[in-house]
Design goal:
Length: 117
């Protein structure tokens, strides 16, 4: 049939994964006390080599019971670290479940840097 394209499921999955990471990046960065997300050297090199935008510091894994989100962040020392991390966890879980309708099993926040700002 003309006009119909064969959809590559891996490409579709990659785009959905990238979109979800972008959403999580926005949710994390709007929290007071979070300065930015932090990538490791492999993520940085991959982004440069592929010349694509990679949502740094955010990894997703899909389990039977829901999505597991891992976020590496730099926090401001001017805000309470524990409360900021707890708020990031609750905020990301609530908003992702509301927006995409999939359960979020866990949100792990890894504090990589604390900046005196």
């Amino acid at each position: 049939m003309m006009g119909l394209e064969l959809i590559n499921p891996l490409e579709t999955w990659h785009k959905a994964d990238r979109t979800l990471k972008e959403l999580i990046h926005l949710l994390v960065c709007e929290v007071n006390g979070v300065l930015y997300t932090v990538s490791n050297i492999r993520e940085t090199l991959f982004g440069i080599a592929c010349s694509k935008r990679v949502e740094k510091g955010i990894t997703l894994s899909y389990e039977e019971t829901g999505i597991v989100v891992r976020i590496k962040v730099a926090l401001s020392l001017c805000f309470p670290i524990l409360e900021t991390c707890c708020f990031v966890q609750e905020h990301v879980k609530k908003e992702v479940e509301t927006m995409i309708g999939m359960p979020v099993q866990a949100v792990h926040v890894h504090v990589v840097r604390v900046v005196k700002k």
